[in-house]
Amino acid sequence: MKTQSTLQRTLQAMVSSLAGIRKEKVNMRKILSTILVAFFTLGAGLSSAAELTDEDMDNIVRRSYQYVAMYNVNNNFAMVESNPLGSKGWNKTKFNLELADHTVKAIARPNNDTYYIISMLDLRDDAVVINYPAFDTKYASLEVSGYDHYVTVPIATSKGDFKEETSILYYSDRTKNYKGKEIKGVDKSLKMTSDFVIAFLRVSAHETKDGRNVKALDNFKLATLSEFQGKEPVQKTTVDFPAWGNDQKVFKNNFLEVM
Prior knowledge:
The chain is an alpha+beta fold and 259 residues long. The protein has seven helices and nine strands; from the N terminus they run H-H-H-E-E-E-E-E-E-E-E-H-E-H-H-H. The chain has helices at residues 2-17, 28-44, 54-79, 212-216, 225-228, 247-253, 255-258; strands at residues 92-96, 114-122, 128-132, 140-145, 152-156, 166-172, 188-192, 196-204, 221-224. The strands form two sheets. A five-stranded antiparallel β-sheet has the order 1-2-8-4-5, with helices on one face. The protein has a four-stranded mixed β-sheet with strand order 7-6-3-9. The protein is globular, with a radius of gyration of 21 Å. The chain starts with a helix and ends with a helix.
């Protein structure tokens, strides 16, 4: 339709124009508002964005920025070989047992007194079961999130957990090989709101200097549900991810594709 074609050309021109903006002068909030207004205007088939108030634009930005941010974060941890903390693949875990310092850029302001045990999960085809060890510590915390950045802390020492081993089954509404049935040997089931998930465990490094908590990680085990049950692995579905890297690049180059 003529109106939508015009809007599409306008949107492309706006996105292209961002390429010339110097990084230190970028007003990200203004850029987000402009692009998102055009995006939602296209979707509604409107002839202009005049009907959107400042409150509308603020609402759109607040509800969409986290998707771009976590799209980059999760993909960088799962698929970037040079990421020192990354798992280098989906349904894999990286045991980061050297403490982070000011030189680590993979995480903004990382803890410098905890180990980071990072698992990257693809829940599209099969659920994933992780067995978490017991730890002799005052601080251990498991934090999980998907592309939507809805963060959950399912187990933590502050809740009385980690006194014994705990197995957690991760799945989403779209997981093909799991529909919510109770599984023998699983302590908790956690339904995620996203198919691509980061689950990172943080454990205090300084309380036990004899290495007992590092040794406890021998009992950390990750398996797909089919592997956990001793069955043949479920065939993996391939996925062609839109380009990722950092938030500025996505908003500038392929925001609509990522969304």
